Amino acid sequence: EIFGINIKLISQNHGDIDSIGFILDDKVAYNLDVKYFYNQEEYFKKIENIDHWIVGCLRIDPHISHASLSEIKEWLDIVKPKNAYLSHMTAHLDYQKTLKELGSERYIPAFDGLEIKVS
């Protein structure tokens, strides 16, 4: 716990290494630099219907250490977060095209200056 916020750490795969994801007060999941989750089914149950999921999506094409847009879309179909923000994107992902591809106004490409209200 830091400043009254309960933080759970999640070990996740990032290609040849691991990275760490976070669940904050069971309201926000933060998973950048992730290719896949160890015990994915268990992790997705933990964050199912979470208020906000910030997830890394480097590009459209497959990558050795980052999830692709199609993988992220599959994860969103399972987790069904109330809101999702794709982050860590390269210039290969056009904002408007990605927004349309996500198909929900609750799932958006993140952008500089984005503020998320967590209650």
Residue-averaged pLDDT, rounded?
95
User: Cα-atom Rg, whole angstroms?
Assistant: 14 Å
Order of helices and strands: EEEEHEHEHE
Q: What percent of residues adopt helix (DSSP H or I)?
A: 10-25%
How many runs of DSSP E, i.e. beta strands?
A: 7
Uncertain stretches: none
Structural class: alpha/beta
Q: Distance between the terminal alpha carbons, to the nearest Å?
A: 17 Å
Secondary structure tally, helices:
3
Shape by Cα distribution: globular
Strand ordering within the main sheet: 4-1-2-3-5-6-7
Q: How is this fold's topology laid out?
A:
Blueprint: E1 7-14, E2 17-24, E3 28-31, E4 36-37, H1 40-47, E5 52-56, H2 69-79, E6 83-87, H3 95-102, E7 107-109
Parallel strand pairs: 3-5, 5-6, 6-7
Antiparallel strand pairs: 1-2, 1-4, 2-3
Question: What does this protein structure show overall?
Answer:
With 119 residues, this protein is α/β, with parallel strands linked by helices. Helices cover 23% and strands 29% of the residues. It contains three helices and seven strands. Strands 4-1-2-3-5-6-7 form a seven-stranded mixed β-sheet. Strand 1 and strand 2 form a beta hairpin. The longest helix has 11 residues. It is globular and about 40 Å long. The two termini are 17 Å apart. The mean pLDDT is 95.
Key features of this structure:
119 residues
Report a brief summary of the structure:
By secondary structure, the protein is α/β, with parallel strands linked by helices. The protein has helices at 40-47, 69-79, 95-102; strands at 7-14, 17-24, 28-31, 36-37, 52-56, 83-87, 107-109.
